[in-house]
Automatic annotation (TrEMBL):
Pfam families: Lectin_legB (PF00139), Pkinase (PF00069). The chain crosses the membrane at residues 289-311. One of its GO terms (biological process) is defense response to oomycetes. InterPro entries: ConA-like_dom_sf (IPR013320), Kinase-like_dom_sf (IPR011009), L-type_Lectin-RKs (IPR050528), Legume_lectin_dom (IPR001220), Prot_kinase_dom (IPR000719), Protein_kinase_ATP_BS (IPR017441), Ser/Thr_kinase_AS (IPR008271). This is Protein kinase domain-containing protein. The keyword Glycoprotein applies.
Length: 662
């Protein structure tokens, strides 16, 4: 039941995020379970107020140069085809500036302020030396520099005439600079110097090119009256020249300084972006829309026709293709395979999934094989395009030979009948041993399996002329030979899903529990395989399923990763170990190393995860043991600190090009 609920929950969150990716995005509330943001600098979640402290929450009567920021986890593309070339957006948030130092003794006062910001990916992390009146937004190098690509709305409670502040309590619109292009004094109910909890609305409407700021106290009802309105066109500013980066992040920043200190709290936040182009009568009359529509339709028809022609052609190619001898894979006839499996006898069934059944077979030359019979409905199976791709993929995969990859011996396709013939693995798959209460895998075997899987994945990622992603690393896809050596199965085919007109034999790529967070909105990369490998490592050590519930009754919906992560942060790694491991105590060092590596592989930010090559090295007995990675900013347990994005020291200094996957 609970597992079902969990699966449903992940499914729902997937749907929500997927919709968000398109045009409209909504809420990342800090009290909810949604792990919506990344933080850098001193920003931390503070359970006592249920809020995020953007600057340090530790006050020891000493002002420090503290600065911090959070950004929503996924980037936005603000460029659009409308008149202004930028998308409209609305945001609303509830915040509080708490002035723990009032002006007075020893020249120390309150400061310095906070801001809502839109920043490009390059400037997503907190810039160095951005404390003081820079409010964590930018630093001296970036100030006034058009390559900063930043739009911000500041809430500043200190009068600093150096940067043109109008008063001690004001809002300002900032473009690539902390010298505002427009400001408004905030007095009375909106007084920033009075510790008030305030809600602000910032709305940019691309049709009018105006940005409006509204505020309310004790209310989340949007007021009619705005406090500040900037008409960018009338000032000769083009937002399209600022927000023109493909990946922009939205968030908040704040700072204190060397002679000022205060708390900057953020309680709730929502954000919507809309790239829907609105028309006004003159610019796009209905006629124009209709014309555009019919042109689009005509084009679509032409493309469809062209595709049919191409399919026709590929059909011929597909059916006459021959494997080069050197590839070493055989094309079997369906008849051969049918007799090898005694007519696909139920007695020889090794396993059954949503898309395929696997049978044990014996070929004429008496070699044992595993035959995967793909279930497809006839209509889909007959799509000529699929067949051409299937054959193309088989040629690629057939050439991938590695001791930790299950060898493909051959294939068969005849009309709607598709089979893949693999070498037979007598000890079946890892999950059958790992999650069986009677399973007997000892630690040295488990470690060897992990090393094998790591080697196999490293080979897929880097060992061959073409990068291959596995995309479905999980215990059920790790197969064990007679001596419990690990071989990774089911690799490579997922590529078909990308190119295909429809699904091939997998409707979704990946398995709940093993899927990296970025997969819900982005593309698969090597680092998402690394994430799945990390989960697998935790399963291997703990003997528990990724989505199984923890034994702690008070913490019923915690998943394996969260549970192990918390234990590791407390230095109690060994409590996660499978109690069935008799040699655990003697091999504690290796075990902790594997746990820590698993956790590093499962970090939220893909770039911090090690490469598979690095994993291979880190699994060696002489490798140094990693520290447990910091807790992510929001996890189910509220009592944790934000994770750092400043990059120094942590992570693995990977080139950030993990995106070029195929
Ligand atoms: C804060 O930064 C200033 C330079 O801007 C430096 O002189 C001062 O020592 C720093 N204070 C702390 C506590 O780091
Ligand atoms: C922003 O809010 C205004 C007023 O509620 C609404 O008219 C507009 O459509 C919203 N824009 C977006 C992008 O959600
Ligand atoms: C400003 O920040 C960038 C990025 O963190 C850094 O490279 C640069 O050195 C900083 N400039 C100053 C003056 O600190
Ligand atoms: C503006 O920023 C770019 C890149 O951040 C830097 O190369 C350039 O020197 C800066 N220009 C000025 C005038 O500081
Ligand atoms: C920055 O861009 C603005 C607006 O396009 C322009 O007026 C200004 O001259 C630019 N500044 C620099 C230093 O290039
Ligand atoms: C803002 O306040 C300052 C000083 O309190 C005053 O000089 C200035 O005129 C005010 N600006 C507006 C737009 O009211
Ligand atoms: C803001 O509130 C503070 C403290 O309550 C008060 O001293 C100050 O005069 C107020 N300022 C404005 C502009 O209302
Ligand atoms: C704001 O809160 C701080 C700490 O609670 C307190 O010391 C300070 O006097 C308050 N300021 C105002 C204007 O209420
Ligand atoms: C907001 O709440 C505070 C404290 O509950 C109260 O003193 C103040 O009058 C309220 N303001 C408004 C505008 O309702
Ligand atoms: C965002 O929050 C504000 C204030 O709480 C609220 O008025 C608005 O309706 C919210 N918008 C969405 C889309 O949740
Ligand atoms: C913004 O400024 C432009 C150019 O000055 C003007 O044509 C337009 O009407 C203004 N828009 C609004 C909503 O005031």
């Amino acid at each position: 039941m609970e597992v079902k609920a969990l699966v449903l929950a992940s499914l729902l969150s997937f749907l929500r995020l997927a919709a968000g990716q398109s045009f409209t995005l909504s809420s990342a509330s800090f009290n909810s379970e949604e792990r919506g943001y990344l933080s850098s600098g001193d920003a931390t979640y503070e359970p006592s107020c249920g809020c995020v402290h953007l600057t340090t929450s530790e006050w020891n009567q000493q002002p420090v140069n503290s600065s911090g920021r959070i950004v929503y986890r996924h980037p936005f593309d603000f460029r659009d085809d409308s008149l202004r070339g930028v998308a409209s957006f609305n945001t609303s948030f509830t915040f509080q500036i708490v002035r723990v130092f009032e002006d007075g003794n020893s020249g120390i006062g309150p400061g310095a302020g906070m801001a809502f910001m839109l920043v490009p990916e390059a400037n997503m992390r907190l810039p160095k030396n951005s404390y003081g009146f820079y409010m964590g937004l930018l630093n001296e190098t970036m100030q006034g520099n058009n390559s900063t690509h930043m739009l911000a709305v500041e809430f500043d409670d200190v009068l600093n005439t150096d940067v043109g502040d109008p008063s001690a309590s004001h809002a300002g619109v900032d473009i690539n600079s902390v010298i505002s292009v427009a400001t408004a004094n905030l007095t009375g109910e909106f007084n920033l110097t009075a510790n008030y909890t305030l809600t602000a609305w910032i709305e940019y409407d691309a049709t009018t090119d105006c940005l409006e700021v509204r505020m309310a106290r004790n209310s989340t009802e949007r007021p009619r009256e705005f406090l500040l309105r900037t008409n960018f066109s009338s000032r000769g500013w083009k937002l399209s020249g600022v927000l023109n980066q493909e990946r922009m992040y939205v968030g908040f920043s704040a700072a204190t300084g060397q002679d000022c200190f205060q708390f900057h709290r953020l309680y709730a936040w929502n954000f919507t972006m809309s790239r829907v182009t609105k028309c006004n009568g003159v610019d796009c009359p209905v006629v124009k829309v209709l014309v555009a529509l019919s042109v689009a339709l005509a084009l679509a028809l032409m493309v469809a026709l062209a595709m049919v022609v191409v399919f026709r052609r590929t059909k011929k190619i597909a059916y006459t293709i021959h494997m080069p001898e050197s590839v070493g894979i055989t094309r079997f006839s369906f008849k051969e395979l049918r007799s090898a499996t005694r007519g696909f006898s139920k007695k020889l069934l090794l396993g059954r999934g949503g898309f395929a059944s696997v049978y044990k077979g014996t070929l004429k030359d008496r070699t044992a094989v595993a035959i995967k019979y793909l279930n497809r409905d006839k209509a889909e199976a007959d799509s000529e395009n699929s067949i051409a791709q299937f054959v193309a993929e088989i040629r690629v995969i057939g050439q991938l030979r590695h001791r930790n990859l299950v060898g493909l011996k051959g294939f068969c396709f005849e009309r709607a009948k598709f089979c893949l013939v693999y070498e037979y693995m007598p000890n079946r798959s890892l999950d059958k041993h790992l999650f069986d209460p009677k399973g007997k895998l000892e630690w040295h075997q488990r470690l060897a399996i992990l090393r094998g899987v790591a080697e196999g994945l490293a080979f897929l990622h880097e060992g061959w002329q073409q990068r291959v992603l596995h995309r479905d690393v999980k215990a059920a896809n790790v197969l064990l030979d007679a001596s419990f050596g690990a071989k990774l199965g089911d690799f490579g085919f997922s590529k078909l899903v990308d190119h295909g007109t429809g699904s091939w034999y997998m409707t979704a790529v990946g398995t709940t529990g093993y899927m990296a967070p970025e997969l819900y909105t982005g593309r698969a990369t090597e680092r998402s395989d690394v994430y799945s490998f990390g989960i697998l490592a935790l399963e291997v050590v703990s003997g528990r399923r990724a989505t199984s519930l923890s034994k702690d009754k008070n913490d019923e919906d915690s998943v394996l990763l969260d549970w192990v992560r918390e234990l590791a942060c407390d230095g109690r790694d060994m409590e996660a170990v499978d109690p069935r491991l008799h040699e655990a105590a003697a091999r504690a060092e290796d075990i902790v190393r594997a746990i820590r590596l698993g956790l590093h592989c499962c970090q939220l930010e893909a770039y911090k995860r090690p490469t598979m090559r690095a994993c291979c090295q880190l699994l060696q007995s002489n490798a140094a043991c990693l520290e447990a990675p910091p807790m992510p900013a929001i996890v189910s347990s509220p009592s944790v600190r934000g994770l750092s994005l400043d990059g120094s020291g942590e992570g693995f200094n990977v080139d950030d090009d993990a995106n070029h996957s195929s």
